[in-house]
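**User:** Once you have settled down, spend some time on the protein underneath, comparing sequence with structure tokens, and judge whether sequence predicts the tokens.
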Amino acid sequence: MPQHPDFELYDNVGRTSEQIAAARSGRATRDDLLRWAARDGEQFLAEHPLPDDPLPVPDTAPYLAALAAARTPAEASAVTQHLLDSAHPALAAVSELLKAIARWGGRWPAEKGTPPKMLMEAASRSLSVLALADQADLAFLRAEYDPAPPPPEPRPTPRPAPGAIRVSGGLPPAPPNPPPAGPASGR
């Protein structure tokens, strides 16, 4: 079985379970794959530099302070909706970038379980976070402003008069069995 020239066989001392399994199966680990890709992509990144810093993290302190001060579902919803509106542009941009990566090299449409299909699913899920949070917020508001009506109270069943024929279930008695249809037998 040909191996990548950088593939190292491991001796299990100080190795992770992934490294041990990889050595037994002759497969590269995640770290191996990323190390090889970083080495082979070095020249590309020199020509097309990307930011080294992570994407800016939003300041959540104002949201947490407002949430701590919230006393009603409407006030908590105001925090939730403002957060969702603020996060949407960033998540939408990430979703679009994941879709572009999935389509790179004409790899789309793709079969289920393939890397492009997985990337498209990740793009979709990044936005479904917003939809799920919105759905939860609306459920809180519905419980506050539009709760489900209580179940109807059972009506008391009238007591039959003494000596009256009792019919179960409030229905009239069943009719007697009809005579058999068709020609009479024995003639």
In short: Residues 142 and 148 are 8 Å apart (CA to CA). DSSP finds six helices and no strands in the chain. The chain has a mean pLDDT of 83.
